[in-house]
């Protein structure tokens, strides 16, 4: 279908009512992005930036690094000591970037092309996180960490390769970061875009369906190699996904499409059979100067009253501690929030994306202690907000 026709059809169908799912029990999900993606390496990495004439510290994401096994251990400890009405602990849905830049061969070729290193094969040169990959897998075995798909590179490879083909300040900045072992710092270079979205293109900035299929296929393969399972839930980098993204996700067995904050829509299926859900509680102590624990608790309670799941959005930077200790404040606040919600809502259930999909299909979901039933009501709602994503 031509591009113009697609846009006209999308606008017309946006007003068609959608059938959403509403629940008679309070449900809490936690979705978290950017796991496995390297940033600024460590304090030695900061020194490399200073030597290169770049001063970091203006914004929190200047200190985005990479989680450690200790970070995950502390997170798992907070989760395992909280229980819902069924006796189950919360599970963090961790959206993984499954490749990092392989800086050594790139530098050997004077950064003329991009080389990727699968997360399953370890970390780039000079990066060290002892026990990290094992800690991911241990958390999965405990049922506390649920891996999901974010992407391969997070940035748009087409956008970056276009920059590197030239000789300008943007190319110089990228080379400086890569020599320091850092792929990018997004707020300093928004022109790198997001994996399926190139901001430098005129008109439709999303990559073609064929290109997205290639990227998603590669990501799914690397995810399966890392976790010995296929991803069932996905969140596009930067929340930049379109109908082509959703169609290809469905082809590769994705069941749940995660959407960013800004909508109070209930979970619902699209034409591809994907279950769409929308984050509605932003839990970002590290990056939100106006973060309020009470606000998060109230937002969750409003969702419960409306019969929709409360879905916390939390990026991995909140758990980092290598360069700046974001972890301590975050884990204290997370424990307090979970305790407050359990106290306010004694029938609260902690579920994962895959549990939600199973629930709307069967009216129950499976736990180690048996099946948990939840009554579900289907109601039509205006889909114009939901279909803007």
Description:
The protein is of the alpha/beta class and 389 residues long. It has 12 helices and 16 strands. It has helices at residues 3-13, 43-51, 69-80, 103-108, 132-141, 157-164, 169-179, 209-227, 243-251, 293-306, 327-344, 353-362, and strands at 18-23, 27-35, 92-97, 99-101, 116-118, 145-151, 233-234, 256-259, 268-269, 275-278, 281-282, 310-313, 349-350, 364-367, 370-373, 376-381. The strands form 5 sheets. Strands 2, 3, 6, 11, 12 and 13 form a 6-stranded parallel beta sheet that branches. Strand 7, helix 9 and strand 8 (256-259) form a beta-alpha-beta unit. Helix 3 (69-80) runs parallel beside helix 5 (132-141), helix 3 packs parallel to helix 11 and helix 8 (209-227) crosses helix 9 (243-251). It starts with a helix and ends in an 8-residue tail after the last strand.
- CA radius of gyration: 21 Å
Count the beta strands. 16
- Spatial gap, N to C terminus: 20 Å
Element-by-element helix/strand order: HEEHHEEHEHEHHHEHEEEEHEHEHEEE
Helix proportion range? 25-40%
Q: Report mean pLDDT, rounded to a whole number.
A: 93
**Secondary structure category:** alpha/beta
Strand content: 15-25%
User: Quick one: overall form?
Assistant: globular
Q: How is the biggest beta sheet arranged?
A: 6 strands, parallel
What is the overall number of helices? 12
Q: Unreliable runs, pLDDT <50, ≥5 residues?
A: none
């Amino acid at each position: 279908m031509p591009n113009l026709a697609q846009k006209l059809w999308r606008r017309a169908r946006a007003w068609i009512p959608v059938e959403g799912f509403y629940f008679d029990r309070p449900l809490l999900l936690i979705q978290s992005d950017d796991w496995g993606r390297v940033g600024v390496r460590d304090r030695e990495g900061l020194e490399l930036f200073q030597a290169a004439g770049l001063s970091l510290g203006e914004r929190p994401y200047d200190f985005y690094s990479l989680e450690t096994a200790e970070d995950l251990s502390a997170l798992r400890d907070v989760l395992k000591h909280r229980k819902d009405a069924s006796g189950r602990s919360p599970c963090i849905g961790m959206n993984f970037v499954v490749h990092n830049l392989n800086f050594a061969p790139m530098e050997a070729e004077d950064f003329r092309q991009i080389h990727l290193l699968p997360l399953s094969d370890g970390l780039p040169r000079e990066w060290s996180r002892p026990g990290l990959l094992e800690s991911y897998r241990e958390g999965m075995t405990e049922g506390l960490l649920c891996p999901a798909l974010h992407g391969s590179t997070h940035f748009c490879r087409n956008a970056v390769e276009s920059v590197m083909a030239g000789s300008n300040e943007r190319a110089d900045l990228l080379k400086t970061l890569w020599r320091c072992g850092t792929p990018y710092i997004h707020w300093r270079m928004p022109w790198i875009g997001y994996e399926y979205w190139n901001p430098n293109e005129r008109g439709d900035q999303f990559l073609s369906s064929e290109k997205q299929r290639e990227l998603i296929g590669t990501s799914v393969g690397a995810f399966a190699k890392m976790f010995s399972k296929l991803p069932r839930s996905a969140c596009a980098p930067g929340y930049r996904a379109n109908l082509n993204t959703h169609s290809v996700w469905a082809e590769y067995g994705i069941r749940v499409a995660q959407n960013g904050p800004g909508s109070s829509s209930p979970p619902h299926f699209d034409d591809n059979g994907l279950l769409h859900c929308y984050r509605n509680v932003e839990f970002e102590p590290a990056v939100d100067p106006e973060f309020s624990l009470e606000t998060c608790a109230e937002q969750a309670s409003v969702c419960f009253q409306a019969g929709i799941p409360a879905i916390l959005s939390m990026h991995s930077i909140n758990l980092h501690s290598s360069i700046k200790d974001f972890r301590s404040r975050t884990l204290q606040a997370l424990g307090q929030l979970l305790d407050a919600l359990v106290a306010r809502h004694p029938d609260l259930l902690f579920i994962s994306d895959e549990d939600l999909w199973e629930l709307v299909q069967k009216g129950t979901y499976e736990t180690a202690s048996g099946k948990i039933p939840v009554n579900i009501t289907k109601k039509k709602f205006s889909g114009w907000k939901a279909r803007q994503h």
